[in-house]
Specification:
Structural class: alpha/beta
Radius of gyration: 17 Å
Shape: globular
Strand content: 15-25%
Distance between the termini: 59 Å
Order of helices and strands: EHEHEHEHEHEHHEH
Number of helices: 8
Number of strands: 7
Length: about 240
């Protein structure tokens, strides 16, 4: 018996910053997957201040398909800000984000989609990260350990694809605009007792460009965001 289409209406937010080499293929693949897997969908491309041809490519894609729309940031604001922008204009009650670099497509998170109606937040996790060097593996391990030690969280993966109930964005005050946005949502959803489920996802090595999340500046900013949230939760309210 064919499981598809799932009885799901989904907004797919695609944040992108300088992804001219991969964006067109990424959007077309996700659109094909969505037509096969979902009842109804929309794709919101959020161009986060790109300086290459990403805006031009995104604009052309949105003009060809009524299910695709483009929202543009005049300057680069970060992954979290891009996801929030997409969530604000989303018309469906379930929202996910898929990166513009093609490292994961909608078809790769089907196990998470099947759980989405039963949770406030679904965290998909990667089992294999074949293109990760020692530095990136250490960063990922370090984040997982810090969130376990500082916040008591025991999930497998924090910086990968999430699936949200739209209502989560009105219930949680999220301050991080960069990559730690993902961790902050998990911390605050867990603290409020929201239902969080996990599901395995496929991970695809990057075919072009480079990872922005492993840059030293991004890592430092994420660490400061983590520290600020920890202080506010456990100390600021006691003063």
């Amino acid at each position: 018996m064919n499981d598809f289409p799932l009885d799901i209406n989904l907004t797919i937010v695609v944040p992108c910053f300088n992804e001219e080499q991969s964006l067109e293929d990424t959007i077309k693949t996700n659109s094909n997957d969505a037509n096969r897997i979902l009842k109804n969908f929309e794709i919101i491309i959020v161009d986060d201040g790109s300086t290459d041809n990403t805006p031009k490519i995104a604009s052309a894609l949105s003009k060809k398909d009524s299910n695709i729309q483009l929202v543009t940031h005049k300057k680069n604001l970060g992954l979290g800000a891009a996801i929030l922008t997409g969530a604000r204009v989303a018309k469906y009650d379930l929202i996910t984000y898929l990166p513009g670099d093609g490292q994961v497509y909608l078809g790769d998170i089907v196990s998470g989609l099947k759980k989405a109606k039963d949770a406030d937040l679904v965290l998909t996790y990667r089992k294999e990260r074949s293109d990760y060097n020692v530095y990136r593996k250490l960063l990922s391990w370090g984040l997982t350990q810090l969130l376990r030690i500082l916040f008591g969280l025991k999930y497998k993966d924090y910086n990968w694809v999430h699936i949200y109930k739209k209502s989560i964005f009105s219930k949680l005050e999220i301050e991080s605009k960069g990559v730690f946005f993902l961790g902050e949502i998990v911390i605050k959803a867990h603290k409020q007792g929201m239902k969080i489920l996990e599901a395995e996802s496929i991970y695809r090595p990057r075919r072009s460009g480079f990872s922005k999340t492993a840059k030293l500046r991004t890592v430092v900013n994420a660490f400061f965001d983590l520290s600020r949230i920890w202080y506010k939760i456990y100390f600021a309210r006691e003063r």
